[in-house]
Design goal:
Blueprint lengths: L10 E16 L2 E13 L7 H7 L4 H11 L10 E5 H21 L12 E5 L2 E5 L3 H10 L5 E3 L9 E3 L10 H33 L1
Parallel strand pairs: 1-5
Antiparallel strand pairs: 1-2, 2-3, 4-5, 6-7
């Protein structure tokens, strides 16, 4: 006789704390301050934070705006001022895109070691995992649904990294899906044109 494990009733959630203010661009660096007041960001349906990060243009203004909303990518919450260079942020984004492409190609990795600074608490019958860094949170967003991690099939798409809402999605947006349909229609019309030309030549030769 087998019994179900006690943890079968535990409901699990994970979040990233946003505790920043006064985010500004100073030379080639993004500078801000840690705050005691915490805003929690949990995963949600639709556009994930991971998707916003991977598709961010990477300009200084875009990086500042992203940091203002979600905080630093690889910094554990501290006290006082924090700073990082635009180049460091772009390098983190580059590494995250590589990780994304691995998930698309081979699925979830066998193991993953999150960065330090994590914590666990139990509230209202939910187990809450406090991600020590935004990087860990975004990684968990992808690892929690690896079968939905996608790269848009439209060549030169401006925002190719996306998480599908259903299993058959291959394009990141309606615009890209419409582009695909337009390409198929164009190809079909070209095929029909070639067939008519070939038929016309055959009729000419038989006269």
């Amino acid at each position: 006789m087998s019994t179900l494990p006690d943890y079968r009733f535990i409901r699990f959630r994970f979040y990233t704390p946003v505790c920043v203010r006064s985010i500004r661009l100073v030379g080639i660096s993004i500078v801000g301050e840690w705050t005691v007041k915490e805003q929690r960001v949990y995963p949600e349906r639709g556009i994930t934070v991971a998707q916003r990060f991977a598709n961010c243009p990477g300009t200084p203004d875009a990086i500042r705006a992203f940091t203002e909303k979600y905080g630093p990518v690889a910094h554990t919450q501290g006290v006082g001022e924090f700073r990082f260079t635009v180049g460091e942020w772009v390098q983190s984004q580059h590494e995250f895109k590589k990780f994304w492409r691995v998930l698309v190609k081979v699925g979830s990795p066998g193991r993953y070691w999150p960065l330090e600074g994590n914590a666990v608490e139990f509230r209202n019958r939910w187990l809450h995992f406090r991600c020590g860094t935004l990087w860990t949170f975004m990684t968990f967003e992808l690892l929690s649904q690896p079968e939905k991690v996608r790269l848009c099939l439209r060549p030169n798409c401006a925002h190719p990294y996306f998480v599908a809402q259903h299993g058959k999605e291959q394009y990141c947006s309606t615009d890209c899906a419409n582009w695909s349909q337009a390409q198929l229609k164009k190809y079909w019309h070209e095929q029909q044109r070639e067939k008519r030309k070939a038929a016309g030549k055959k009729n000419t030769q038989t006269r």
